[in-house]
Every structure is written in structure tokens, then in C-alpha cells.
Design brief:
Elements lengths: L2 E8 L1 H19 L5 E6 L2 H17 L5 E4 L30 E9 L3 H11 L6 E9 L11 E5 L6 E6 L1 H4 L4 E7 L3
Parallel strand pairs: 2-3, 2-4, 4-5, 5-6
Antiparallel strand pairs: 1-8, 7-8
């Protein structure tokens, strides 16, 4: 399948502004950065979480713990859609009991990945609160999942996808594109 870019949703500057806005919103709602732990979902959510945490560190002059969560084994399509799943290690060296977890992912679609992440987090402990941060919400929910903080909301059709590019992972650029199947 070959995709073509339909629209640039966020360019590099828009990406940076969105990270900054999300950091400020999180601080406002949580009345500061005390008791926060950021947990980014592999792959790109990890880097979005690190970026937001770094921005909060700049604002608050306080180190923010960041962990990484791999939800592969918690997915409900583990045995059906994923032929050879790449299982990577979660890195949550922190005690999450009684902490406010800021769970971060790049794109929210059906809600199934977030459900898997919630199941995985509960295996690590019992946080006081979990808030969901999403860079791009594209709709089409299959589960009742809603983000607490959204970078950009976009209406998509089923044949479209949202592609997030982040320098730490893709080595190219920071950008978000709406793509669709290219017709022959």
C-alpha cells in the first residue's frame, strides 16, 4: 500500500508550539509538577513524553521522571493482527503508587492501545490518577477513551492515517501529516 500526503497538520514550528502548549496545560491542571511521572508509549509517544517533560523542567526548574511503556503483550489484537510482534522492554524504574501518571501517545484512534496501556500500568502499581496526553486525536473510537490533553484534533476518514514524524525516532523532521491511500 502506498500513501500520499493530503495535508500537513503540524510543521516543525507548529510541533514545538504544541509541545509547549501541552506542557503549560498540564502544569495548570495539576497546579505544578509535583508528584507527576510521565509515561510515554512506545514508539513515538516515548519521545513526545520526553519533550513535554523537558519543557516542564524548563518552566518549573524541577526534574520530571519519564518512563517508557511497551503495550505489545497487552493488546487485544496481539495474536490476530500482529504477525511477528516486536516486543520491547518497558522502562518504569519508578514506583508509580500514589503518583499522578501522565500517559502520553502520539495518535489516538480506536482507543485500544490506551486500554492496553492502562492494563499494563496497573501491573506496575496503583497510581493516584492517570491523565492521557495525545499529540493528535483522529477520532473513530471503538472504546470509551478520551484524552485529557490534546495537541491537535483532526477529522479523518477510515482510509486516511495520521503520520507523526519525530526527529528522535524518524531521523527526518518534526511534523504531522494526514495521509491517504494513493489510487492507481
Amino acid at each position: 500500500m502506498k500513501f500520499k500526503t493530503k495535508e500537513t497538520l503540524l510543521d516543525s514550528l507548529g510541533f514545538a508550539r504544541t509541545i509547549s502548549r501541552l506542557a503549560h496545560e498540564i502544569l495548570e491542571v495539576n497546579k505544578g509538577s509535583q508528584n507527576l511521572i510521565f509515561v510515554g508509549m512506545r514508539s513515538r509517544g516515548e519521545f513526545v513524553a520526553k519533550r513535554i517533560a523537558k519543557k516542564i523542567e524548563e518552566i518549573e526548574n524541577q526534574k520530571i521522571p519519564v518512563g517508557v511503556l511497551d503495550v505489545t503483550l497487552y493488546r487485544d489484537d496481539f495474536r490476530t493482527n500482529l504477525k511477528q510482534p516486536e516486543i520491547r522492554v518497558s522502562d518504569l524504574p519508578l514506583i508509580i503508587d500514589e503518583k499522578n501518571i501522565i500517559l502520553v501517545d502520539d495518535v489516538l484512534f480506536t482507543g485500544r492501545t490506551v486500554r492496553a496501556a492502562l492494563d499494563a500500568l496497573m501491573d506496575y502499581g496503583r497510581p493516584s490518577r492517570i491523565q492521557l496526553v495525545i499529540l493528535v486525536d483522529r477520532g473513530h473510537r471503538e472504546l470509551p477513551v478520551q484524552a485529557d490533553f490534546i495537541g491537535k484534533k483532526v477529522i479523518t476518514s477510515k482510509g486516511q492515517e495520521v503520520r507523526v514524524k519525530i526527529k528522535e525516532f524518524d531521523k527526518e523532521e518534526d511534523a504531522v501529516y494526514l495521509v491517504e491511500l494513493e489510487e492507481n
